[in-house]
């Protein structure tokens, strides 16, 4: 019995070493991780099925109350059996992969054992299936424990129960019963101990590997946080300068030979040189097109293990969150600036004086119009203040602000200004940044038709049109005024240029286009400004 135990341990040791070597491979580690990456499931099943079959072939033939070690087992005689380590592969598959994996590997191992024959063939066919299910159920029950050192004791216990189950099945199903009893008496204890120790040994090695990866993961996490700490203040620079500086940091800290930032398939920033080996860090912001990506080039291919992949993914996520945070902060400031400029433009003494003076003159001659002006002024100021607290409002709300503003302006300008609106009511609930249409209308009045002799005409259009093959809302503000000096964001005055630039930056943030405002202007003929709402 002792000699049989020694022979069994030799075979178990070889099989455990083989399993551990394969467990170091990337695809095996990805599947065995309790995080549940199922990409390589069929490779895992194939390996442990082949492992169980190999364990059967490398076993010890038992016949006539004795055993005969052999380098390889072929067909088993009707009166013989096999002492083997098949249980080790089935139990490990169940403990690492769950019930489904243990069941599939058990079926393959059982069918193969049945094909070899012997008087215990039926029992040895059923046993691996039940062992795989048992190991999978234990894996689910003790899932958290199997991530700790205690998993070694649990693995031994599961292996012992699985092997004991096989011995019980042999006694229950094998005929004649006397031969089954003699077989279990000879191989029961050595095989059960050897296979239980084998399962436990695998988890000793597995835990060592887990601790090693945990240590490497901690180093990677520290590196990612250190890089993130260095890059956070850089995002506050202008975008081009920010990605250039961040590329330098990534190139130095990640020990690469080149770091490039690309956007829309075109390289913007280059630091170092390109090679055939690289990793990508994609910068994404929710509800927006991809911002761009950093590509790090290396002299040789880097280790592609779960820990490094998680580190690169976390670093890309940290950089994306930094960009989103800084952009959100910048948009808050832009919105505040827009609100301040709007209030300054509309609530300056001249504006209030003109409105109140008009109200005063209408009180006696046109009391109803005076009442309407006070109502529009109240509505305009209320919406002005409420919109300043929101990132997005509906086109309907912005249109109501425009109409309140125009009602005040038209009371003073009278027949000198005409306003036409062509609005698709289906689009009124689309969301846009506040203070986008109203400042364009204001710009058309103050810097367009105000200085034009004759009647000034402003047209507002909200229509659904095709853009890049998809239907989107298109907003157009057109006037027949004196025109801008150039068809860009720089107008005839600093106020006009700042207002247009502010609108463009906020539209770019929300919709992803670098230059969302389309401006056409001809001196003496007027200006047309358009933008898309996606």
TrEMBL record:
Q: Where is the Signal transduction histidine kinase 5TM receptor LytS transmembrane region domain?
A: 37-205
| Pfam families given in the database record | 5TM-5TMR_LYT, HATPase_c, His_kinase
Keywords from UniProt, A to Z, are: ATP-binding, Cell membrane, Kinase, Membrane, Nucleotide-binding, Transferase, Transmembrane, Transmembrane helix, Two-component regulatory system
According to the UniProt entry, its GO molecular function terms are:
ATP binding; phosphorelay sensor kinase activity
TM regions (residue ranges): 44-67, 88-112, 118-142, 154-174, 180-205
**Record-annotated Signal transduction histidine kinase internal region domain positions:** 338-416
Q: Which InterPro entries match?
A: Bact_2-comp_sensor_kinase, HATPase_C_sf, HATPase_dom, Sig_transdc_His_kin_internal, Sig_transdc_His_kinase_LytS_TM
Cellular compartment(s): Cell membrane
Membrane topology summary? Multi-pass membrane protein
User: Would you tell me the Gene Ontology cellular component terms?
Assistant: plasma membrane
Query: What name is this protein filed under?
Result: Sensor histidine kinase
**Source organism:** Paenibacillus silvestris
């Amino acid at each position: 019995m002792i000699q049989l135990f020694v022979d069994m341990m030799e075979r178990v040791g070889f099989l455990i070493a083989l399993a551990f070597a394969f467990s170091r491979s990337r695809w095996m580690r990805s599947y065995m991780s309790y995080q549940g990456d199922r990409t390589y499931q069929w490779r895992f099943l194939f390996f442990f099925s082949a492992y169980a079959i190999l364990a059967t072939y490398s076993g010890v033939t038992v016949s006539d109350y004795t055993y005969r070690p052999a380098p390889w087992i072929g067909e088993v005689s009707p009166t013989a059996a096999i002492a083997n380590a098949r249980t080790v592969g089935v139990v490990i598959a169940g403990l690492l992969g769950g019930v489904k994996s243990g069941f599939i590997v058990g079926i393959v191992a059982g069918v193969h054992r049945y094909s070899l024959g012997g008087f215990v063939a039926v029992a040895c066919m059923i046993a691996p299936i039940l062992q795989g299910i048992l190991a999978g159920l234990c894996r689910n029950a003790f899932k958290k424990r199997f991530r700790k050192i205690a998993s070694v004791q649990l693995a031994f216990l599961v292996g012992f129960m699985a092997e004991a189950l096989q011995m019980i099945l042999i006694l229950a199903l094998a005929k004649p019963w006397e031969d089954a009893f003699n077989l279990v008496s000879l191989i029961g204890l050595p095989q059960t101990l050897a296979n239980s120790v084998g399962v436990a040994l695998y988890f000793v090695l597995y835990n060592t590997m887990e601790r090693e990866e945990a240590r490497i993961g901690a180093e990677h996490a520290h590196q990612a946080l250190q890089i993130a700490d260095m890059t956070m203040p850089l995002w506050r620079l202008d975008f081009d300068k920010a990605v250039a500086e961040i590329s330098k940091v990534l190139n130095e800290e990640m020990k690469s030979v080149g770091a490039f930032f690309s956007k829309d398939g075109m390289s913007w920033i280059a630091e170092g040189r390109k090679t055939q080996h690289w990793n990508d860090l994609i910068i994404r912001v929710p509800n927006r097109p991809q911002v761009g990506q950093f590509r790090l080039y290396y002299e040789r291919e880097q280790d592609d293990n779960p820990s490094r992949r998680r580190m690169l993914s976390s670093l890309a996520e940290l950089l994306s969150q930094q960009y989103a945070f800084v952009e959100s902060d910048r948009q808050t400031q832009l919105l505040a600036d827009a609100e301040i400029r709007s209030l300054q433009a509309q609530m300056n003494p001249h504006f209030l004086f003109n409105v109140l003076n008009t109200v005063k003159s209408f009180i006696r001659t046109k009391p109803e119009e005076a009442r309407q002006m006070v109502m529009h002024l109240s509505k305009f100021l209320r919406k002005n203040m409420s919109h300043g607290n929101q990132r997005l409002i509906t086109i309907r709300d912005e249109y109501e602000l425009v109409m309140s503003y125009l009602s005040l302006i038209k009371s003073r300008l009278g027949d000198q200004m005409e306003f036409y609106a062509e609005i698709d009511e289906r689009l009124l609930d689309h969301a846009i940044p506040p203070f986008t249409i109203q400042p364009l209308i204001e710009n058309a009045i103050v810097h367009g038709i105000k200085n034009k002799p004759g009647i000034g005409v402003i047209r507002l259009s909200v229509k659904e049109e095709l853009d890049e093959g998809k239907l989107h809302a298109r907003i157009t503000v057109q006037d027949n005024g004196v025109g801008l000096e150039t068809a860009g964001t720089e107008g005839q005055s600093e106020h006009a240029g700042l207002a247009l630039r502010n609108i463009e930056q906020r539209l770019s943030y929300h919709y992803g286009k670098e230059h969302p405002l389309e401006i056409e202007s001809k001196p003496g003929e007027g200006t047309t400004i358009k933008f898309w709402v996606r």
